[in-house]
Amino acid sequence: MRLIKAIVALLFVVVGVLFGALNRTPVRIDLGFATIEYANLGTSLLAAVLLGAIVAGGVLTAAVVWPLRRQLRRAPTAVEPTPPEHHE
User: Of the candidates 55, 61, 37, 46, which has an alpha carbon nearest to the alpha carbon of residue 14?
Assistant: First the structure.
């Protein structure tokens, strides 16, 4: 399983490098408060996807993971198992 994960990760790196290499067109990015001149299109798109994934992970953590962890901390720690009922 570890080998499969490593191969998939390497595949994504290779695809990212190829994507960046094939899209070398210079672009101008206007952020409203700043302008980035002569950025490569491929690098800009990959950076936007990475930033989007990081922001989505942060929102997911704040909206789902933290409330669930808080709920687990408040839950009773030990629950007594109930014996099964026997019908005779």
Answer: 46
pTM assigned to the model: 0.69
Q: Is residue 81 part of a domain?
A: no
Residue 87 inside a domain? The answer is no
CB of 23 closer than 8 Å to CB of 44: no
Q: Is residue 77 part of a domain?
A: no
Please answer whether residues 43 and 50 qualify as being in contact, where contact means their C-beta atoms are separated by less than 8 angstroms: no
SS3 percent helix, strand, coil of the chain, rounded to 5, is 60, 10, 25
Instruction: Please report whether residue 82 resides in a domain.
Output: no
CB 26 within 8 A of CB 40: yes
pLDDT digits (tens, 9 = 90+) for 34-78: 998 888 999 899 999 999 999 999 999 999 999 999 998 888 776
Strand partners, 40: 26
Contacts of residue 45, defined as CB under 8 A and 6 or more positions apart, other chains included, come to 19, 23
